[in-house]
Amino acid sequence: MGCEPATAAVLFNRGLDTVDKARGFLSASLKDLRPPFSIRDMDRAVNRIYRAVDRRERILIFGDYDVDGVTSTAVLLDFLQHLGARVSYYIPHRIREGYGLKAEHISDRVLPPDTRLIITVDCGSGSQPAVAAARRAGIDVIITDHHSVGAPMPDALAFVNPKRPDCHAAFGHLAGVGVVFALLIGLRRHFRRQGFFRGRGEPNLKQYCDLVALGTIADMVPLVAENRILARAGLELMAVKPRAGIQSLMEICGMQTLHIDAADIAFRMAPRINAAGRIKHASYAVDLLTAQDLRTARQLVGPLDRMNTQRKILEKIILDQAEQKLESNPELANIKSIVLCHADWHLGVLGIVASRLVERYNRPVVLISTKHATGKGSARSIPGIDLYQALSRTAGCLVGFGGHAAAAGLEITPGEIERFSRQFEAAVRTTGTPQAGRADLQIDCRLPLDRVSDRLIDELEQLKPFGMQNPEPLFMAQNVRVLSSKVVGEGHRRMRLCPGGRSSDGSLEAIWFNADPALARQKVFGRMAYRLQWNRWNGRKKAQLVIDAV
Predict the structure, then answer these.
(1) Is the pLDDT of residue 441 over 90?
(2) Collapsing DSSP states into helix, strand and coil, what is residue 396?
(3) How many Cβ atoms sit within 10 Å of the Cβ of residue 492?
(4) Which entry of 28, 144, 431, 491 is 20 to 30 Å from 100 by CA?
């Protein structure tokens, strides 16, 4: 490859063990997307949607309230509107209605009158009762989803979920919005074959890649294969020609648009989009992402930013209360899972707090709000423990549940929480792999600080976007000397480092987020795990180490 040895090591560690594989990974683009037509029921979904558009039937898109669901809704809504379809959308209220299409959405006529077709996005795999209710009402249902599938499968007119057990198309890594994008590829081909686009503009699917990247990265699916290609294309689109809603988001986040990456989406943009569904209603976010002009988008993004501030306050309150519960029950330190409940917890932020606790305690966490007659909870897991499998083993305690290996939601009668806690602990102990719970650092290679170069950082940037199954490279240096150190922000450390025994001429800047105060006072580190990045500011860039551990 003619690259730095450290870059070669990183590629090899990710299974790219030939020149062809490595070049294919680094140069992957939209032309390398595999045709998705073999996904089970894709043809049935495409044919039914064509008929609905052709006959001017009313279509309802039923989405989820997280970033994946919101972007899925926005993509399909915009595409069908471009075709001239009679289409609207509905996203349930997170707290009042909960996740997914339910029978009451059909029986209580939440749908627009004369709806003939419902298309779910990022949900529906567990909606058997709702599908049956729709059939009785004379409404066809097409499910598009990516969540784990239980038994029995919903008897929908079309069930487009690459994770269904009888689908062998190998697209199980897609997020919900990735499944929707695959549907768009199928729809455009079919409409083209029917001569639909004669005399009118054919939609350019690349224009949706920014929304697909947003939902894919936010949902923390593996950033490999199609996900990596779509995420890269979307990030490039955001940098050069962002849609109004995304541009307004980048402005309020203070982002440098030319160098936007997956971390910007995960830690800046996604929380603001998610805040809508957590605090008020996800329709605020859909309105932003489908805004047609920048002036409208800037008016819409302000309330989202304020919701995100409110979300942070609620999150801190619940995290503090959860920590207090754990401190007052020291016996919880000896078990493999954490299950906590509280009557005052805001359901909209439980998933975030559960993730914080997973990071801190390195074990699966279930947090339940018992504010109402039926408790509702969010669960998060660690690598090596399949959360969906673990919850399946506790199904007798639950009113219902849904999700996938890493994240899930559940409903439970408060009186069943204690029994659930015992069964969940047993399930976690028996479903995990031998490596589950180990907090090892996966270091790519030893890299002394005097081997760090601008060329190496440029090469590593080509591996972006980083995420699941394509983690940001981690290196190790030994005998690192601290030339200077000062506290910045809330507990972070800005340092200048150089190899021990060397002069300060070859020193490098470093940042250590949430630094351990005692360790940060050391003058020499025997071993340091670090990442390499460009620190960009005001049009300039400088090499920077991000310290992971010492």
Answers:
(1) no
(2) helix
(3) 14
(4) 431
Structure tokens at 233: 């294309």
* 470: helix, strand or coil: strand
Task: Give ranges for CATH 3.90.1640.30 in the chain.
Answer: 39-206
pLDDT at 255 > cutoff 90:
no
Structure tokens that stand for 240 in this block:
């050069």
Q: Omega of the bond prior to 152 within 30 degrees of 0, cis?
A: yes
Q: Are 182 and 171 in contact (CB under 8 A)?
A: yes
The pLDDT of residue 425: 95
The residues facing 54 across adjacent strands are none
Q: Which uninterrupted H or E stretch holds 322?
A: helix 294-328
**Cβ atoms of residues 78 and 180 within 8 Å:** no
Domain with CATH 2.40.50.460 in the chain: 441-549
Q: Which amino acid is at 336?
A: K
350 pLDDT higher than 70: yes
Tokens at 498, concatenated: 């150089």
Instruction: Report d(CA 507, CA 126) in Å as an integer.
Output: 56
Q: What percent of the chain has pLDDT over 90?
A: 78
**What is the model's pLDDT at position 257?**
72
Whether the bond between 465 and the residue before it is cis, its omega within 30 degrees of 0, is yes
Average pLDDT over residues 461-465: 94
**Over the stretch 289-298, which tens digit does the pLDDT of each residue have?**
999 999 999 9
Residue for token pair 């990045």: 533
pLDDT over 70 (residue 437): no
Say how far apart CA 483 and CA 507 lie, in whole Å.
8
Q: CATH 3.10.310.30 spans which residues of the chain?
A: 329-431
Question: How many C-alpha atoms does 180 have within 13 Å on its Cβ side?
Answer: 32
pLDDT in tens, 42-97: 999 999 999 999 999 999 999 999 999 999 999 999 999 999 999 999 999 988 88
Residue tagged 């004669």 (tokens) = 198
**Which class is domain 329-431?**
alpha beta
Q: CA dihedral in degrees (369, 220, 303, 99; nearest 10)?
A: -40
What is the model's pTM? 0.89
Q: Which token pair is 508? A: 């490098």
Where does 39-206 sit in CATH, by number? 3.90.1640.30
How many Cβ atoms from other residues are within 10 Å of residue 223's Cβ? Answer: 23
Report yes or no: 153 and 168 within 8 Å, Cβ to Cβ. no
Residue 539 above 70 pLDDT? yes
Task: Give the mean pLDDT of the chain.
Answer: 92
DSSP code for 357: H
- Which runs of E-coded beta strand occur in 334-474? 338-342, 365-369, 375-380, 398-403, 407-412, 445-446
Output the CA–CA distances (angstroms, integers) from residue 286 to 110, 151, 297, in the order listed: 19, 32, 11
CATH C-level class of 441-549: mainly beta
